[in-house]
Amino acid sequence: MSSRPTVLVVTLGDFRYRGFCLQQVAAAYDVVVIDSVPPTAEHAPYVTDVEIADPHDERALLAAGRALAARHALAGVMTWNEWVLVPTAVLAGHLGLPFNTPETMLACRDKAIGRSVFAAAGVPSPASMTAGSLLEAALAADSVGGYPVVLKPAAFAASVGVTHVERPEDLPAGFAFATAGAARARESTAVLVESYLDGPEVSVETVTFAGATIPVAVTRKDLGNLPYFEETGHTVAAGDPLLAEAGPIAVAAVQALGIDRGVCHTEIRLTAGGPRIVEVNARLGGDMIGHLVELATGIQLARVAADVACGRAPDLSPTRHRAAAVRIRYPDRSGTVTARRLSRAFTAGTPWLERATWLCEEGDTLMLPPQGSSFTARAGLVVVTAPTADLAAKRADRALDRMTVDTRPAVETGSAT
């Protein structure tokens, strides 16, 4: 029988993206899991016990939680999955385990609520209005300051349904795109019309414990071409001077939302008028950002999140002073993957290439926006390390150039005339 504490993780996610989270936590805790699907072969060595249940089915989720609590002395509950923040909060309350409240998690999930909270607390964020129709969207665009504007689902993630609208004549297509994304959300199907924040985008990774929120790292983001906001890469460097600029507003946003524990990923635009909050995600950042933080600073954010979930003071002492970057390969066009290439000589002879991971197989269909999203468009990713951020970015771009994918466009069928 293990003497280690047991932490309950709700939803494991794709091992290619979130495997490092599970590995960090399992190094110090026994991990029991509630998920809608069984753990994969990659997950299995790190999982002590599992209950299969749909986290969005409250009765099934609570029953699974009770079953695990009957078999294990649970010290805490956590998730790194955006979609199950509110259900996890409900489960924690049912099991008597510490977690942020469901109301707080809903304010993070529903950006309309978050915008109201920020406005009341004086935390700078874009002007924003909810639109239920194209006419309302047109009126909202004028009300938030005019074009360009950003349209987005109030309660989705991964830039799904988020679009830049430059001119009034582009609004119908933009509203249709955002509405289609919003229809897939659970907490809210609303569409927001917001003022466009011009400037580079970063995220701040924070840790909240015992009443204090501490900025740990800043992530510099690379985005694809407008009108979409697909994330194409991230770079993290220990000691990045941008942390001093962006850190305080991230702390203010986290505190305004009432988050009293956990790791948060806060997205910020650095505008000419100062930093502005895009959104606060009350979980570890995606796209390998937590792994980049570990490579650059030595701080293991998933392990930190588990410590906080179990009421333990986290160790935020950096043990490295380096940089790391990830770049994501998208196809040039939507279609069926016909070939994918990555030089074995390059990967074997490049010590700074930490990993190169395919996210597709030959025969898969990759779909770029507007028909697809980051969930359907990504072909692979590369992670690199370097002494500095500039060199990490150059190395990441070089590695990405060695990862190529070919697609055959789908053939449109129709009756001949």
Task: Characterize the structure shown.
This protein is of the alpha+beta class and 417 residues long. The protein is built from 13 helices and 19 strands. The protein folds into four domains: 6-99, Rossmann fold (3-Layer(aba) Sandwich), CATH 3.40.50; 127-195, 2-Layer Sandwich (Dna Ligase, domain 1), CATH 3.30.1490; 197-321, ATP-grasp fold, B domain (D-amino Acid Aminotransferase, Chain A, domain 1), CATH 3.30.470.20; 322-409, 2-Layer Sandwich (D-amino Acid Aminotransferase, Chain A, domain 1). Helix content is 32%, strand content 29%. Strands 13-12-9-10-11-14-18-16 form an eight-stranded antiparallel β-sheet, with helices on both faces. The protein has a four-stranded parallel β-sheet with strand order 3-2-1-4, sandwiched between helices. Strands 5-8-6-7 form a four-stranded antiparallel β-sheet, with helices on both faces. A hairpin with a 2-residue loop joins strand 12 and strand 13 (274-281). Residues 413-417 have low confidence and may be disordered.
Gyration radius from CA atoms, angstroms? 21 Å
Q: What is the name of the CATH topology of the largest domain?
A: D-amino Acid Aminotransferase, Chain A, domain 1
The structure class reads: alpha+beta
- List segments where confidence is low: pLDDT < 50 over at least 5 consecutive residues: 413-417
The number of strands is: 19
Quaternary state of the chains: single chain
* Structural shape: globular
The strand line-up of the biggest sheet is 13-12-9-10-11-14-18-16
Largest sheet: 8 strands, antiparallel
- The helix count comes to 13
